[in-house]
Write a structure and sequence with these properties.
The chain is an alpha+beta fold and about 150 residues long. Helices cover about 30% and strands about 10% of the residues. The longest helix is centred in the N-terminal third of the chain and has 17 residues.
C-alpha cells in the first residue's frame, strides 16, 4: 500500500511539474461518465479529459480507474481517439420527460440539452449537448454509442 501511495504521489508531482493533469484529476474526470463503460471507453475518456477537462466528478474513482489514468499519463496506452476533444454519455442525459434537468446556465459537459432530442440507448429519446453535431462524431470499435459518444469539434 505504501509503495502504491508513493507511486501515485510521484506521478502527481511529475504532472504538476510538466503542467499535466495529476492522476487523481484525470481519474476523477474519467469517473464522470457512465459507470457501465468498458476499458476502451475509459481510455477514450481519459485522453479527451486531457484536452477538455470540463468533466468532473466528486466520486472517488475505483482503483482500476486510477491505474488506467496513471498508465495514460505515463504514455503506456496509445491514444485511440483520432484527436477527439469532447465526449458525453447518452445514458446520463435527461429523457424528454426530464427536461427540467436542463437548467440555465448550462455549462459545457454538464446538462447542456441544446442539441435537442435523439433516440439513444434503445428506443428512449434523450437530450444531447448543443456541441454534439452528428457529422463531428467519431466512431470507434469497442466504443458503444449508448455509453460514450465522442466528437472532434
Amino acid at each position: 500500500m505504501f509503495l502504491h501511495s508513493l507511486f501515485v504521489v510521484s506521478i502527481a508531482l511529475i504532472g504538476i511539474i510538466h503542467g499535466q493533469m495529476t492522476v487523481d484529476e484525470l481519474a476523477r474526470c474519467m469517473n464522470a461518465g457512465s459507470p457501465y463503460v468498458n476499458e476502451v471507453e475509459l481510455t477514450v475518456q481519459g485522453y479527451i479529459c486531457q484536452r477538455d477537462s470540463n468533466h468532473t466528478s466528486n466520486k472517488s474513482p475505483k482503483q482500476v480507474v486510477i491505474q488506467l489514468a496513471s498508465s495514460i499519463l505515463q504514455g503506456q496506452i496509445s491514444d485511440p481517439t483520432q484527436g477527439a476533444n469532447r465526449w458525453f454519455s447518452p445514458r446520463l442525459m435527461p429523457k424528454e420527460s426530464e427536461k427540467s434537468q436542463c437548467r440555465q446556465p448550462i455549462g459545457e459537459g454538464t446538462l447542456d440539452c441544446d442539441g435537442g432530442l435523439e433516440v439513444s440507448c434503445g428506443a428512449t429519446e434523450r437530450y444531447r449537448p448543443g456541441w454534439a453535431i452528428p457529422d463531428k462524431q467519431i466512431t470507434l470499435s469497442k466504443v458503444r454509442d449508448c455509453e460514450c459518444k465522442i466528437f472532434k469539434i
